[in-house]
Amino acid sequence: MAVPVFCNSCLCEPRNPTPRFSLTSCGHVFCEICLQKGKKDECLVCRTACRTLVLSKQISPDIQSLFMGVDVLCKKYSKEISQVSEFQEKHRKHLLTYHKQKIAKLEESLKKVTQQMQQIQCMKPPEKTTPLPYSSASRNPFSIPSRKQNVYSSYSLHSSRPSTSETMEAMEIDPVPSPVRKV
Predict the structure, then answer these.
(1) Which tens digit of pLDDT belongs to each residue from 158-178?
(2) How many CB atoms lie under 10 A from the CB of residue 172?
(3) CATH 3.30.310 fits 1-68, yes or no
(4) What is the pLDDT of residues 46-100, one digit of tens each?
(5) Is the pTM of this model over 0.85?
(6) Which residues lie closer than 8 Å to 49 by C-beta, 6 or more apart?
(7) What residue ranges do the domains of the chain occupy?
(8) Please, what's the largest Cα pairwise distance for the chain?
């Protein structure tokens, strides 16, 4: 049921022949007869400056909805709201599916990497600790000379020509870098 339209000045309703009705920007409705009696661009009821719009079937849907029954508006907007809600729900489900698939792929990748790490750890031989070269020197003083001892003094116990391995054993290793040497 449409809201009855009537002039806010003379309270007449549209009838045949129907005078045209206008809506003011301040929200009042007037017939064309009353509008002609009043001052131009001034509301007859609230006396404020206003613009007018002739009411017809060609006016915008927003203005037409001002004259529709509340029950009709509820049905119309209820349908629109349902359509918007369904549209948004489809998009939420689509986004949720995408994120679930992405999470599943990431979990699968994590599982593979974890398995690879476990396989690598199982294949890795246990680390052996090697004794320091100076620890063997305490047992056999002739294999590696001390720092203060002459490098060639250990050769006196060997033959006149030492082998390559004997020469390597006789070399002194200095773990402290020299200021001249670049590390």
Answers:
(1) 445 555 555 555 555 555 555
(2) 12
(3) no
(4) 888 988 888 888 888 888 888 878 888 888 888 889 999 999 999 999 999 999 9
(5) no
(6) 41, 42, 43
(7) 1-68, 69-124
(8) 142
Token pair in block for residue 31: 């017939």
- The partner residues of 137 in beta bridges, in order of sequence, read none
CA angle 168, 177, 155 (to 5 degrees): 25
Q: Say how far residue 35 (Cα) sits from the centre of its chain.
A: 58
What do you get for the CA distance between the two ends of the chain, in Å? Answer: 97
Cβ atoms < 10 Å from Cβ of 116: 10
Provide the pLDDT confidence category of residue 130 given band limits of 50, 70 and 90: low
What's the whole-number average pLDDT of the chain?
Answer: 76
Using DSSP's 3-state secondary structure scheme, residue 51 falls into coil
Lookup: tokens for 17: 């022949």
Q: How confident is the model at residue 112 (pLDDT cuts 50, 70, 90)?
A: very high
CA trace torsion 37, 42, 45, 51 (10° rounding): 110
Residue 155 to residues 46, 133, 140, 161, Cα–Cα distance (Å): 124, 19, 14, 9
**Number of residues assigned to the chain:** 183
- CA distances from residue 152 to 17, 80, 141 in whole angstroms, order as listed: 135, 102, 14
